[in-house]
Amino acid sequence: MVIVIPRNTTIPSKKVKIGTTVCNHQKEVLTKVYEGERTIAKENKLLGQFVLSGLQLAARGVPEILVCFETDANGILIVSARDKKTRQQKMMTITRDNYRLSKWEIEKMVKEAEKYKLEDEEFKNKVEAKMALENYANDMRNTVSHLPKLELVDKKKIGNAIKQAKRWLNENQLAKFDEYRDQTKRLENICNPIIAKARGDGSG
C-alpha cells in the first residue's frame, strides 16, 4: 500500500499520484482508499473504492492515470482518477463523519504499526520482489516482439524462460523474498546476454 497523505498532514491539502495499468489492453482500474498506518492494505480501514472505465487500450504501463487526493478545511476527502489520454474521470467523496477512524482507532493502529514494523517491512520487500519478477518477464516479452533481428532459437529460449517464470509464479504464491529474487536473477541471466547480442548486431 502506498501512503499518499501521512498522518497529521496540515489541511487543506492536495496530493497527486500517477498510476498505470498492470495488464495489456486493460479497460478499467480499481482505486481503493484506506486509512491506517500499516503497509499491508488489509490491515487498514477501507474508506471506499471506485472503478475508472474507458481507459486508453495500450500495453501495460503505458496509460497515465492521475489520482488526486484533496482534503478541504473541514476534513472532507475527495479522491479522483483521470485517464490522461481519454480524459475519462471518476471520483468519490469521503466525509469526516462517515467511515473515518476515531481517535481511539488511530492510536491503536499507530501502536500496531510499531509492533508489526519488521513484519510489514518483510511483506513489503516480498511484494516488491514479486512485482520485479513479473515486470521483468513482461518487459522481456515486449522487448522480444520489438527486436526483428533476434534469432529464432534465441526468441524461443527467452519465450520458454518467460513461460517457466510465469508458471513458477502461479505455483509459488507464498514464496519468500529470496526465492523471488533468485528467480529474477535466473531469468535475467538467460535474457540479458541474448538481448545485448541482438541489439549489438542491430547497431552494427
From TrEMBL:
Tell me which domain of life the UniProt entry assigns to the organism this sequence originates from: Eukaryota
What SUPFAM superfamilies does the annotation carry?
Heat shock protein 70kD (HSP70), C-terminal subdomain, Heat shock protein 70kD (HSP70), peptide-binding domain
State a single Pfam family of this protein. HSP70
- Keyword field: ATP-binding, Nucleotide-binding, Stress response
* Molecular function (Gene Ontology), one example: ATP binding
Q: What PANTHER family does the annotation carry? A: HEAT SHOCK PROTEIN 70KDA
Name of this protein? Putative Heat shock protein 70 family
Output the lineage of the source organism: Eukaryota, Viridiplantae, Streptophyta, Embryophyta, Tracheophyta
